[in-house]
Amino acid sequence: MLAKNSLPIACVVALTLAAPAPTFAQTAVVNSGAIAAACATSAAACEAAILAAIAALQQAGLTPAALNEQLGIIAGVALNAARALPPSELAALSGTVSRLAAASTDPAQQTALLQLSQAIATGGSPDLALAAFAAAISAN
Asked: Full-prediction pTM beyond 0.85?
């Protein structure tokens, strides 16, 4: 039998155990080496690596800011590595960059990624596209 003062304590303990444990922001670090290696190989390999990274980040339960940071890293690493691809291969990455934009929760980052996607789709220089992307993101 519970003592008279035990019931409030039991309720507090039960509520404490039922509440989710506090979580601390964890920044998943994408495997930038694997993304770079894939993106230096072909558009198809690059797309597969980027989509796998997006899926992993979405499952990681990151804060919106941490997710967006990782998406920016993916874009930079992927397009830097893809610079050596033939123009047709590089242009094929446009849709994948649009998928990065769709995964972002930051409207400014979404806009910058969509502009980057359009730039590479129309044969724009990856260096100029990345510079414009970096400028747009750093302005926020």
From this structure: no
